[in-house]
Amino acid sequence: MILSVAIPSPAGDSFEYLPGGDQPGSLQPGQRVRVDFAGRALTGVIVAIRETGDCPPDKLKPVKAVLDSEPVVPANILELLERVARYYHHPLGEAIFTALPARLRQHLPADGEDPVVWRAASDASLDQVPRRAYQQRALLERLQAAPDGLPVETLRLHFKDPRALLKALAERGLVESRKAPVGSLPKNGTPNQSGPVLNDEQQAAVDALESDLGAFQVSLLDGVTGSGKTEVYLAVIETVLARGGQALVLAPEISLTPQLERRFRARLGETVAVMHSALNDTERFRAWRAASQGEAKVIIGTRSAVFTAFKALQLIIVDEEHDSSLKQQSGLRYHGRDVAILRGQLTGCPVILGSATPSLESLNNARQGKYRHLRLTRRAGNARPPRLHLVDLRRQELAEGLSRFLMERMRVHLGQGRQVMLFLNRRGYTPLMLCHECGTPVDCPRCAAHTVWHAPINQIRCHHCGYQARPPARCPSCGEPELVAIGLGAQKLEQVVRSCFPNEPLIRIDRDSMTRKDDLPRALAAIAAGEYNIIIGTQLLAKGHDFPNITLVGIVDVDQGLFSTDFHAPEKLVQQVIQVSGRAGRGDEPGEVVMQTHQPEHPLLRQLLCEDYAEIATGQLLERAEADWPPWAHLALIRASAPKGEAAMEFLEEAARLFRDAARDEVEALGPVTAPMTRKAGRFRFQLLLRAPKRGPLHRALDQALPAIRKLKTARRARWSVDVDPVDMM
Ligand code: ADP
Ligand code: ZN
What we know:
By secondary structure, the chain is of the alpha/beta class. The chain folds into five domains: about 1-105, GIY-YIG endonuclease (3-Layer(aba) Sandwich); about 115-180; about 200-375, P-loop containing nucleotide triphosphate hydrolases (Rossmann fold, 3-Layer(aba) Sandwich), CATH 3.40.50.300; about 385-425 and about 490-625, P-loop containing nucleotide triphosphate hydrolases (Rossmann fold), CATH 3.40.50.300; about 635-725, CATH 3.30.70.600.
C-alpha cells in the first residue's frame, strides 16, 4: 500500500510514503500524518491510497505517525481542494493547508480533546533570560507573540529540543503550561425578533430561491442598497433550517460588520457560528468543528470559510459578491465567490450571489441566462435614494481639496444634528498632476499615458517608458500656470476639517489610525452610537455598514479612479461611489452625496448622475468587449519581483518564451512589463499577462509551461506567483 501525502511545500502536489506509525484506525484519505520531508518533520494530509506508486517501494519512507482516526478533511472537501488547486495552478499541499484551521495545520488533535499549550508568564521579560541563552530567548519571544499559547509540537518546528528549553524557562518562572479548552459554541436562545412582511419583489425572490433547494443553481440577487437582500437571505435560510440543513454565508469582511452577525442571531433560532480574521485559533477551530459536526446550522464567514466541512450543507450565499476582498491576494489566489460556485456544483445546492453593484462578470452571466437574475429595485421601508451632486473643482478656491459647496453642505447637515462622512479613494491609485484650470492631466510626451507624480522629489514620471522630469510650469494643454496634485492624504484632510469645524467630534478611519485588531469594530460602534459627527475614511468605510444618521457623504477625490492603468478601475469606481452613496440616508431622511472632480465632463461621472448601475454596467461591458478584457477574455497574471530588477525581468522573459511555445496562437503573452506599482518594499516588480478568448487553452498553456518554468534557474532568483483571474493588476 502506498500513501500519497500532500505537504505544504511548493515542490509538488503530493509525495509517496509507506504506512507506518501507530495507526488509530484504518487509513483513509483526509487523515493527517507526520512525515519526514527533506530532513524535517512535517504534518501532511493523505490524499490517496494506492496499490502501487511511481517510485519503487524500497526507496520510500514510512510515515512517522498517523494523527487522526477519522479524516479531518472529508472526501468532498478534498475533491473541492483538488479542483481549486488545479484551477489556480497552486501546489495541492499548500492549498489544503490554506483551508485548514491553524490548529489542524499544527498537529493538534481534531477530536477536541484539550491540548496542553505553553504560554509566556504575564510578567516575563527577556531581560530575565541570560544573554547567552539565545535559544531560550528566541523561544520566549515566540511565546510572547502567541497569547493563546503554543503546543510543544509547534515549537518543535522551530527549535531542536523545545522541552529542555521550556524546562529551563519554567524554572525561572517565565513560562507556564495549561490546558487550552476548545469548548463549544454558545447556543442561540429563542430568536427575539421576527422579520418584516416581505414586499412583492422580495417574496418573488424568496419563492424562486426556495424552488431551487436540493439542486445546483446560481442566482444573482441584484438589489439596490437597502432593498432588503438580507431579509431575503434570512427567509431562505429559515426554510433550509426547517429542512434540517445548514447554510454558509460568505461576506467580504464580517468582523467589520457586526450588524450582520447580530441580525442573524436575533432572527434565527439555531446556532450561528462566525469565522473571520479577528478570531483567535481556538475560536476559529471551535466554529470549524461545530460546522463539521452539524452543531452550527449557519456559518457566516470570510472567504476561507468556503472550505469549511459541513454535515448537511444545503445553501451557499455570497454577500457583496462584487467585492474584491473575496479574492485572496497571496499564496493560493482563489476567489471566494468562484470557489463557492464550484462548491455548490459539487454539493448539488443553490448558490445566491447578492450585491447592489454586481461584478461585470456575474452580471454578464445573469444576462446570458447562466445565472438566474433576481432583481430588487426599491429600497425597503421608507428609505429614499440619495441626491447626487457633481462639484466642478476647476478654478475654485480650495481649502486643501475641500470645495466651498461641500463645506456648506456639511454645515447644513451638521446643523441639523446629522452625521457627515468624507470618503477618500486612495489605495491602489497613483497620484497625478492636473491642470486646475482645464482638468487635463500631465501626459508623457513619449507614451499615451499619464505621468505619475512623485511628491517627495517633486518629479513626474512615466511608468511605461521611464521618462522623468520636473512638473511643467504651465499646463501643456491650455497654458495656465496652476497645476495641482490629486491624491490628498487622509491625515491632511483631517487637519483641514478640524480647523474648519473645531467643535465637531471627528474620527478618521484608515489603515494608519486603525492598527489594533479591535480599533475598527470599536470605532464603528462609536459612530453608530453617534459619538462622532464627522467621519473621515477610506475603503474600510465603504463596506456594508448601516449608519442611519449619516445623511451627507462627500467623495473628496473621485478623480483618482478615472486615471488608473488597471482596466478594473472604472468598474470599481462606480461600485464604490454607489456603495458609499448607499451609506447616506438609510433612515427616514433622504441622503445627499457630493462628488468633487476636476473632470466634470468625464462620461463615467455624467453616467453616475443620471444612469443606474445596470445601464452603466452595460456601457462598461461594451468597453471591455472592445478592449478584449474579461468577461470576454480570460486572464492569468504572472508577477515577479526581486531586489535587482534585471533578475525578475530575465525570469519573466524566459517564462514568456515558454508560454509562447506552449500556447500556439491560442493564448497571448503580453509583456513582460514593469508593474503599475514599480517598486514595493525594496523589490522591483514586473509582470507578464496571459490572455485567451477561452479558458481551456489558457489552462492548457499554464499546465504545459509551468513545470518547465519552475525548473528555470532564473526562477530561483525572483519571487514570483501565478494569479488566475486577477482582480487587481497593480
Ligand atoms: P440590503 O441587504 O439590501 O442592503 P437590508 O436587508 O439590510 O437591505 O434592508 C435594509 C433595511 O430595510 C433594514 O433595516 C431592514 O430591516 C429593512 N427592511 C427590509 N425589508 C423590509 C420590508 N419588507 N419591510 C420593512 N422593512 C424592511
Ligand atoms: Zn490646462
